[in-house]
């Protein structure tokens, strides 16, 4: 478990064109392409930075929350995160 508030201001923005950006507060720190396998509930992220490995997660999605659990495919089983939907164009959550 991460300490309370450790990831405050950290965000990821999944865009309709299958790209994503991530960052902290109002700073974009990177991005890439994603693919969501609807039938398997798996999300694959491929960073634009060739030095970063791809990541794969099982996604559990509701209207306002998405839980991502890392898979063994790219050795991400140690990662689990809860993402909350934010209003459009908000990159500095309070």
Can you give me a brief rundown of this structure?
The chain has 94 residues and is an all-beta fold. It has no helices and 7 strands.
Which helices and strands occur, and which strands form pairs?
Elements: E1 10-14, E2 19-24, E3 27-37, E4 42-47, E5 55-61, E6 65-70, E7 80-84
Antiparallel strand pairs: 1-2, 2-3, 3-4, 4-5, 5-6, 6-7
Key traits:
single chain; 94 residues; mainly beta; 7-stranded antiparallel β-sheet; 0% helix; globular
Describe the structure.
The chain has strands spanning 10-14, 19-24, 27-37, 42-47, 55-61, 65-70, 80-84. The protein contains no helices and seven strands. The two termini are 21 Å apart. With 94 residues, the chain is mostly beta strands.
- Radius of gyration equals 13 Å
Helix content: under 10%
Mean pLDDT: 91
Number of domain units: 1
Global morphology: globular
DSSP helical segment count: 0
Strand content: over 45%
Strand segment count: 7
The computed structural class is mainly beta
Largest sheet: 7 strands, antiparallel
Low-confidence residue ranges: none
């Amino acid at each position: 478990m991460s300490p309370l508030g450790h990831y405050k201001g950290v965000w990821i923005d999944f865009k309709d064109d299958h790209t994503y950006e991530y960052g902290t507060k109002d700073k974009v720190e990177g991005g890439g392409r994603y693919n969501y396998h609807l039938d398997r509930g798996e999300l694959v992220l491929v960073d634009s930075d060739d030095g970063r490995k791809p990541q794969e997660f099982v996604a559990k999605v509701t209207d306002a929350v998405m839980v991502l659990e890392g898979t063994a495919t790219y050795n991400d089983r140690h990662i689990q995160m809860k993402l909350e939907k934010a209003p459009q164009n908000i990159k500095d959550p309070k």
